[in-house]
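User: Could you go from structure to sequence for me? I need the amino acid at each position, not a summary. Structure tokens:
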């Protein structure tokens, strides 16, 4: 079983803090900038797979309990916020860095 670690820059070898990881991830660019050496880093292929699966599961985690429990609007909003906060709280421990951009699908080979 793999223990949860924070991401480590592939360029300078420095471990990012939880806060630095969330701050670097809070943009729409696929490049993450190391807060120590300012090198461009990317999410690894494994990270992309795990976050892809989690992104597909989150709607089910939010909707599935409503079939068995009756939620008020406030309860549903709190449930949604809890799931989203938990995802973003654990994301820094899921993120593994790569110095090169990796894709889930190699589109160049499909032509």
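Assistant: Here is the amino acid at each position, in order:
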């Amino acid at each position: 079983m793999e223990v949860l670690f924070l991401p480590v820059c592939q360029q300078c070898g420095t471990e990012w803090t939880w806060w630095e990881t969330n701050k670097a991830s809070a943009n729409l660019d696929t490049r993450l900038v190391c807060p120590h050496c300012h090198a461009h880093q990317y999410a690894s292929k494994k990270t992309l797979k795990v976050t892809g699966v989690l992104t597909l599961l989150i709607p089910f985690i939010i909707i599935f309990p409503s079939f068995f429990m009756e939620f008020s609007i406030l309860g549903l909003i709190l449930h949604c916020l809890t799931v989203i906060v938990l995802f973003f709280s654990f994301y820094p421990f899921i993120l593994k860095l790569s110095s090169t951009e990796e894709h889930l699908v190699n589109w160049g080979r499909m032509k």
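One structural detail worth keeping in mind: Helices lie at 18-25, 45-63, 73-94.
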